[in-house]
Amino acid sequence: MGSSRRANEIRRPVVVEFEAVGFAHVDGMEVLADLNLRLEPAESVALVGATGSGKSTLVSLLAGLVPPTSGEVRIDGRATTTLGPEGVSGSVGTVLQETFLFADTVRANLTLGHDVGDGELVAALDAAAASGFVAELDEGLDTVLGERGVTLSGGQRQRLAIARALLRRPAVLVLDDATSAVDPVIEAGILAVLRRPFDGDNQVDRPTLLVVAHRLATIRLADRVLFLDGGRIAASGTHDELLELDAYAALAHAYELASSDSTVGDQAGGYG
Questions:
Q1: Please, which residues have CB within 8 angstroms of residue 7's CB and are 6 or more apart in sequence?
Q2: Strands 208-212 and 172-176
Q3: Residues 6+ apart with CB under 8 A from 133
Q4: Domain 3-261 maps to which CATH number in 3.30.1360.70, 3.30.10.10, 3.10.450.50, 3.40.50.300?
């Protein structure tokens, strides 16, 4: 699309590295300590851990929202502190649990004023399992949404946010509990698509994917799981491998109980 995409000098796919990274609040409270992590090109990684384990801080560091207190975060060999906010935001797409949509058309919410071709829009919507419900809206892409997208379900809002992030063709895509309101079957389809190159005229490349997840079904889909505990990577491996650890098994059991007690605020008809 427009100039913001050309400004992204990071090649795809990329390696993401955290080298001896530490982070502490201004009051001195340590959140992350001597954290070493490497995400391989186009790898999909699930990040799990109890509340307060440092997941949100790790995401903020990768997104360049805060600098590390010590150590270095690198994308394609370049430190995030040298890339600057614009360089990092052009390389890392972050989708949060709570999404913001404007009181404007679906198209405007996706493109954010950039010149985007229909082929790119369709590819991103398909990848985010949003093309089906968008096609069913009264005016399709030109349907005006209510303030903050109140006319859509929570899952539909999240899927539009994922499509919007994909349109930027990020080298790294971070989903921070960004599919929590999406139907599990639809979510599995989205993650399966994100793990392979897209077909939409080759407009959307496969990113390196980091998913902060609380659903076992999501965690199982990842190439690798990182178990964060006390501000450190306690273990790395597949979900089945990590179940050998008592602390991880207890957390997985808690996730399973939480999932069985929750209801999903989404609607079917994602792929179309």
A1: 86, 87, 90
A2: parallel
A3: 156, 159, 267, 269, 270, 272
A4: 3.40.50.300
Sheet with 16-24, strands from edge to edge, namely 30-39, 16-24, 70-75, 78-79
Splitting the chain (272 residues) into consecutive groups of 10 residues, what average pLDDT does each group show?
A: 44 83 90 94 92 92 93 93 84 87 92 88 92 92 84 90 91 87 85 65 67 87 93 94 95 84 50 42
Buried b (16+ CB within 10 A) or exposed e, 141-154: beeebeeebeebbb
Note the pTM of the prediction, 2 decimals.
Answer: 0.84
Return all residues near 137 (Cβ < 8 A) that are at least 6 apart: 106, 143
Helix (H, G, I), strand (E, B) or coil at 46: strand
Determine phi and psi for 5, rounding to 5 degrees. -70, -40
Is 31 in a helix, a strand, or coil?
Answer: strand
